Amino acid sequence: MEKPKLIIDGKRCDGRAMDELRPLKIQAGFLNKADGSAYVEWGNNKILAAVYGPRECIPRHDASPYRAVIHCRYLMASFSTLDEHGRSGPNRRSIEISKVLKEIFENVVITEKFPKTAIDIFIEVLQADGGTRCAGVIAAAVALADAGIPMRDLPCAVASGKIGNEVAVDFGKLEDNYGDGDMPIAIAPRNGEILLLQLDGMFTKDELRKAVELAYGVLPKINALQVEALRTHYAVKKDELDFRGD
Amino acid sequence: MEILDEIKKDYVTDLMKKNKRPDDREFLEYRPCTVEKGIFPFAEGSARVRLGKTQVVAGVKIDLGTPFKDRPDEGVLSTTAELLPLASPTFEPGPPDEDAIELARIVDRGIRSSNAIDLTSLFVEQGKVLMVFVDMYILDHDGNLIDASALAAMAALLNTRLPKIEGGQLIRTESTEKLKVSQKVVACTFSKIDSHIVLDPGLDEVKATSARLTIATTPDYVCAIQKGGRGAFTREELFNLVDVSFEKGNELRKLLD
């Protein structure tokens, strides 16, 4: 297939600037049964995260006497892409992603508080438009907070990458497929520490540095939207609460 | 087992505070490493790597097959890792678990990103391509499986011969040429223990690790990164370790000559 032009007149193929995010919408408490949940739309990504727990750890031998264990299941729906019908169930890619996402939340959740239990995080990618693992992080973080699970921080994530010799942030599907490198990164925004970092493609030292700095530039915006989503869900609206007589 | 791990973890962490490692290495020093190519002549390519007491073999098989639908003019590269139960008391029989899959995918990413194997050169005819299977078998787990496996995979690829194709069949006993490998990709893995960072963690150090960072490089480019573990790295640590990876990567690359 012919490689599409990803940069036209200094703008990206969807008209964005290099450091511009796609529209990102987050709703906390989207589901009814889960202890916590969130729905994220990011570009054409549609991603649902739900959290159960702390609850009994299954399988039992997974449980730790020291802390809650975190299980994370990231899956793409069989109808989530423009390609043919996908196979259901985990594949090698989704197992790897599930593992690195789990490690993010092991860092921030105060698991010591709930020994011998499990916290189960489910991330379902209903529509995939590039950057699904980062969208998954954003959704799962809000879902954990919605479940009332104590955390040291609310992690957020974004992928930056390379298009030719340019570095850009928040790759869409086309850029994901035809760009020259991709670097998803998740941080704990309060201390700026890196909780997830993956990279493929060929980056020089300088390009790598630029890609990291570009991500750090937009991550606070993403974090603010997460906080806003939680605030909107939980805040008491003006005039909603008042002294009431008969 | 868990109690023993906790004790070892404390032991290693205490040593680090005295600026020492369990085997007296420098913080940014590899264990002795050897690479042997062509150890299994029946495979199209093979290699063994010993990194301290860690031991990994890799075998490459070349098959004829059909290309992926979205890449009809490219061959197929497949990389897998087997954490054999004979390699460690903690490895269990069964399908690859998340650790095995992550390991294989990190190695795969380095090779794929760098275009070390030119997949278009594996095109045979319409609907028919060569498939390259790189399988890494862990024989002894004494820490840092990623760097050892990446080295074994690369060495095996460098050692791979392409079988002769005749009448739509592979003749494995006759080879026409060697597989073209344009880049030597090597991986450097670091462990963060407490606030210290060490290169090439041994098994006891792995147990004490809060966060792990693997950086795969060619001489000029970073071509794969993977962070693992519940701990974290700062930006400055990352940039610093990228520098170290280029430097140490050149040492590793010499082993592949």
From TrEMBL, chain A:
Report the SUPFAM superfamilies cross-referenced here: Ribonuclease PH domain 2-like, Ribosomal protein S5 domain 2-like
The protein's UniProt keywords, in alphabetical order, are: Cytoplasm, Exonuclease, Exosome, Hydrolase, Nuclease
> From the UniProt record, which GO molecular function terms apply?
RNA binding; RNA exonuclease activity, producing 5'-phosphomonoesters
Biological-process GO terms, alphabetical: gene expression; nuclear-transcribed mRNA catabolic process; rRNA catabolic process
Residue span(s) of domain Exoribonuclease phosphorolytic: 20-150, 153-216
Domain of life, per lineage: Archaea
Q: Which GO terms describe its cellular component?
A: cytoplasmic exosome (RNase complex)
Membrane spanning stretches: none
Localization per record:
Cytoplasm
Question: What is one Pfam family matched by this protein?
Answer: RNase_PH
**Cytoplasm in keyword set:** yes
The record's section on NCBIfam families has: ECX1
Q: Which family does it belong to?
A: Belongs to the RNase PH family.
Q: How does it assemble?
A: Component of the archaeal exosome complex. Forms a hexameric ring-like arrangement composed of 3 Rrp41-Rrp42 heterodimers. The hexameric ring associates with a trimer of Rrp4 and/or Csl4 subunits.
Q: What is this protein called?
A: Exosome complex exonuclease RRP41
Automatic annotation (TrEMBL), chain B:
Its cellular-component GO annotations read:
cytoplasmic exosome (RNase complex)
Q: Which UniProt keywords apply?
A: Cytoplasm, Exonuclease, Exosome, Hydrolase, Nuclease
Return the InterPro entries for the record. Answer: ExoRNase_PH_dom1, ExoRNase_PH_dom2, ExoRNase_PH_dom2_sf, Exosome_comp_Rrp42_subfam, PNPase/RNase_PH_dom_sf, Ribosomal_Su5_D2-typ_SF, Rrp42_archaea
In terms of SUPFAM superfamilies, this protein maps to: Ribonuclease PH domain 2-like, Ribosomal protein S5 domain 2-like
GO molecular function terms attached to this record: exonuclease activity; mRNA 3'-UTR AU-rich region binding
Does Secreted count among this protein's keywords? no
Q: Is Lipoprotein included in the keywords of this UniProt record?
A: no
Among the GO biological process terms of this entry, one is: rRNA catabolic process
Q: Where in the cell is it found?
A: Cytoplasm
The Exoribonuclease phosphorolytic domain, residue ranges: 29-163, 185-247
Q: Which protein family is named in the record?
A: Belongs to the RNase PH family. Rrp42 subfamily.
Q: Which PANTHER family match?
A: EXOSOME COMPLEX COMPONENT RRP42, EXOSOME COMPLEX EXONUCLEASE RIBOSOMAL RNA PROCESSING PROTEIN
Self-association and partners: Component of the archaeal exosome complex. Forms a hexameric ring-like arrangement composed of 3 Rrp41-Rrp42 heterodimers. The hexameric ring associates with a trimer of Rrp4 and/or Csl4 subunits.
**Biological role stated in the UniProt entry:** Non-catalytic component of the exosome, which is a complex involved in RNA degradation. Contributes to the structuring of the Rrp41 active site.
- Protein name per the record: Exosome complex component Rrp42
